[in-house]
């Protein structure tokens, strides 16, 4: 289904001297454990991309967590005790996010550091994002920063009720992020919940599509995938990609 219709190639005497892809950039926001990553995975699966080698992939997903800023030693000590606010916009490096997304939109390859929740820091592991047709950028605050928000061609908000999100976050953080129950609940009540109400939830208004119940909402995901397919098909409007309002 992926086509080359949105290659912005400069042609001289019929020869393509440069072929630059402008990827279709999709922002996926929502509260913690709302199912953002799972929705992205479903979209990739339905576009037939999830099982592909990452160098061949034409649909890729990037997490906003790769753009947490470095912590000072005293912030690090707080973070280890669950006393640092990772849900506040100041915890992110907006300029780095902006530069990376602009590079991706310019059709260039980028290398992104992966985030390690056990050390509360970027890890040595990196992932290289090759020029792709569709790039999904998911995270709690991807619509918070206007500079970032303005870059998206499509904005999705995964809307899952807070009880469900907490019920998913507790086992996930214990199993996958090396936390204990006290740590998860204290952090949730002190920072995660208030920051969701103050910074994340208000960004729902920027979404083009709100997805109630996340990945359980197969109808919404089918519609979104169909729309992406229409844009990318030969003759679709992918030649004229401009970010949405
Ligand atoms: N529809 C669903 N039904 C059951 N569990 C889900 C569903 N969506 C996500 N999960 C689980 O909830 C946790 C958080 O999901 P994830 O997609 O990683 O959320 P987010 O990216 O928003 O933090 C994971 O353990 C995931 O397997
Ligand atoms: N060192 C960190 C960094 C982030 N968090 C929490 O992760 C949440 C965002 O990730 P989701 O997959 O849940 O969207 C966010 O709510 C932070 O509290 C963390 O606990 N530790």
From TrEMBL:
Its EC number is 2.7.1.48. Pfam families: PRK. It catalyses: cytidine + ATP = CMP + ADP + H(+); uridine + ATP = UMP + ADP + H(+). The keyword Kinase applies. Residues 25-219 form the Phosphoribulokinase/uridine kinase domain. GO terms for molecular function: ATP binding; uridine kinase activity. InterPro entries: P-loop_NTPase, PRK/URK, Uridine_kinase-like. It is an enzyme of class 2 (transferase). Pathway: Pyrimidine metabolism; UMP biosynthesis via salvage pathway; UMP from uridine: step 1/1; Pyrimidine metabolism; CTP biosynthesis via salvage pathway; CTP from cytidine: step 1/3. Keywords: ATP-binding, Kinase, Nucleotide-binding, Transferase. Belongs to the uridine kinase family. This is uridine/cytidine kinase.
């Amino acid at each position: 289904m992926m086509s080359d219709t949105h290659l912005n190639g400069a042609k001289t005497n019929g020869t393509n001297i440069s072929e630059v892809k402008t990827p279709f950039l999709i922002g996926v926001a929502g509260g913690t454990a709302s199912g953002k990553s799972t929705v992205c995975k479903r979209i990739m699966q339905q576009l037939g991309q999830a099982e592909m080698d990452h160098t061949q992939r034409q649909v890729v997903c990037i997490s906003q967590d790769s753009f947490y800023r470095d912590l000072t030693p005293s912030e690090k000590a707080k973070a280890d005790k669950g006393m640092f606010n990772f849900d506040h916009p100041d915890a992110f490096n907006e300029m780095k996010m902006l530069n990376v997304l602009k590079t991706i939109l310019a059709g260039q390859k980028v290398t992104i550091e992966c985030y390690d929740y056990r050390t509360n820091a970027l890890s040595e592991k990196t992932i290289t994002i090759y020029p792709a047709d569709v790039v999904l950028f998911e995270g709690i605050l991807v619509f918070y920063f206007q500079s970032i928000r303005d870059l998206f061609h499509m904005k999705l908000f995964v809307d899952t009720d807070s009880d469900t999100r907490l019920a998913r976050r507790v086992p996930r953080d214990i199993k996958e992020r090396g936390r204990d129950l006290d740590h998860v609940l204290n952090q949730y009540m002190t920072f995660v919940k208030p920051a969701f109400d103050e910074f994340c939830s208000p960004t729902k208004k920027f979404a083009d599509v709100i997805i109630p119940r996340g990945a359980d909402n197969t109808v919404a995901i089918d519609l979104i995938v169909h729309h992406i397919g229409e844009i990318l098909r030969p003759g679709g409007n992918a030649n004229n990609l401009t970010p949405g309002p």
